Amino acid sequence: MEVSGKVALVTGAGSGLGRATALRLAARGASVVAVDVRAQSLETLREHVPADRLLVREASVADAAQVGQAVDEALAHFGALHIAVNCAGVADAAKTVSSKGQPFALETWEKVIAINLTGTFNVIRLAAAAMARQALDEGGERGVIVNTSSGAAWQGQVGQAAYSASKAGVIGLTLPVARDLAEHGIRVVTIAPGLFDTGMVAGLPAQVTQSIVDRMVLFPRRLGQPDEFASLVQVIVENAYLNATTLDLDAGTRLSAR
Question: What are the φ and ψ backbone dihedral angles of 146, each rounded to 5 degrees?
């Protein structure tokens, strides 16, 4: 599917991987519906994307009504929806039982699962329903959905039970959802990024970050750049033979227990 002239909905578009993806798709000619739970974080996109090709919307991916409204507004404003990229996520961490003997707070578990897993599927189901109603494009497709998992899905560190479970769930839904949507001409692919230079690591001292890289990243020995993630999203959209799979984007990273 050609990116130029298409309409893309990107969640988590206010920062990190989502922001880089929104900017790259827009730079290649797509109209973008940028969604984030923090509306203010979306405003800087206006400096880089033409006003007639940008719609910013505050929404929680875990809220069916809010996501449904964002999809409806995409259709009303741009007339179609061809691409959906799920980048919204949280990484709240806690041990199953703390050093003081306290059990993992169930509300933390429910929050992480609600946003990372249920929220991803919420966007998938509503975006796919909209895509399925539109005509096939010149390449014989109706849509492409890209999800974000993590290397933590199978290499979860201490304190990452909820996060790892949510990201493993995203990998687990990729194949069955792709099978469900094949008859509608919609592809589904998941990216599992490794250690990236995003807000999740921005607060760490440089020496701590470098120590993590030296211990865990094979080559190139550095953090991934958000635009490298966005570049892979573009490849997935443009390569019609990519479907029903999860792609590692991690420079050979192997996470240690801590």
Answer: -120, 125
What pTM value is reported for the model?
0.96
d(CA 219, CA 140): 38
R_g of the chain computed on alpha carbons = 18
**Per annotation, catalytic residue among 109, 163, 196, 229:** 163
Domains of the chain, earliest start first: 7-249 (3.40.50.720)
| Per-residue pLDDT tens digits for 23-44 | 999 999 999 999 999 999 999 9
Which residues are 146's β-sheet partners?
A: 85, 189
Instruction: Say whether 163 is catalytic.
Output: yes
State which amino acid sits at residue 111.
K
Strands 83-85 and 54-58: unpaired
